[in-house]
Design a protein that fits this description.
Elements: H1 2-12, E1 20-22, H2 24-34, H3 36-39, E2 43-49, E3 56-58, H4 60-82, E4 90-99, E5 102-109, H5 139-150, E6 154-160, E7 164-172, H6 176-184, H7 190-194
Parallel strand pairs: 2-4
Antiparallel strand pairs: 1-3, 4-5, 5-7, 6-7
GO molecular function: protein histidine kinase activity
Keywords: Kinase, Transferase
Organism: Thermogutta terrifontis
């Protein structure tokens, strides 16, 4: 219970909207805990978090939203594939890696996969394959906006219909604009801004 309350506080803290240096693995763990009710009946979650991941300069609240959207979508895809069969479970795997100056997050599921005919529309606002009342078509559009526009990153998808999907999110570990501004200050250095 204490872990859930702590995770909810971290997830919803007002300061979490501003960019700051964070332990991104902790963001992943908090988000997985907060959205447990979405996945616990259909899937097991496996975390493969890089213990050597450096602190990441990002908006933890917005990145928690990205993770939440991807995990919820993964759980729904698995639930759709299982079709109400209660003795089977899918798997959601979340990994973090440092790739040079980039953080790479992968969210994989063993769900339905994404049909080729709609792959180029999945990030469009209001596009959804869910029944009326179940999805708004905003989750992946918001995710794309946060990753690409606000964090200057990328989001890609690998999918096989009937087998599952992996979303690959990459964001810079350090904010290049902040580092540039800091190095322009007398005696400034990137470390003085993001440490």
């Amino acid at each position: 219970m204490a872990k859930i309350v702590r995770s909810m506080k971290e997830f919803s803290h007002p300061a979490a909207q501003a960019k700051q240096v964070v332990d991104f693995n902790r963001c992943v763990e908090s988000t997985v805990t907060v959205c447990r009710n979405e996945w616990k009946y259909v899937a097991d979650v496996e975390l493969d978090l890089d213990p050597r991941l450096p602190p990441v300069y990002c908006s933890p609240g917005e990145m928690n939203q990205v993770l939440l959207n991807l995990i919820v979508n993964a759980a729904h895809a698995i639930g759709d594939k299982l079709g109400g069969v209660t003795n089977e479970r899918g798997k959601i795997t979340i990994s973090t890696r440092c790739q040079g100056d980039w953080l790479e997050i992968r969210v994989s599921d063993t769900g339905t996969g994404i049909p080729e005919a709609i792959r180029d529309r999945i990030f469009d606002p209001f596009f959804t394959t869910k029944p009326v009342g179940k999805g708004t078509g905003q989750g992946l559009a918001i995710t794309h906006s946060i990753v690409v526009e606000k964090h200057h990153g990328t989001i890609d998808v690998e999918t096989t219909p009937g087998k599952g999907t992996t979303f690959i999110v990459r964001i810079p570990i350090h904010d290049q604009e902040e580092e540039k501004n800091a190095s322009d200050l007398p005696g400034g250095s990137p470390e003085s801004v993001i440490a």
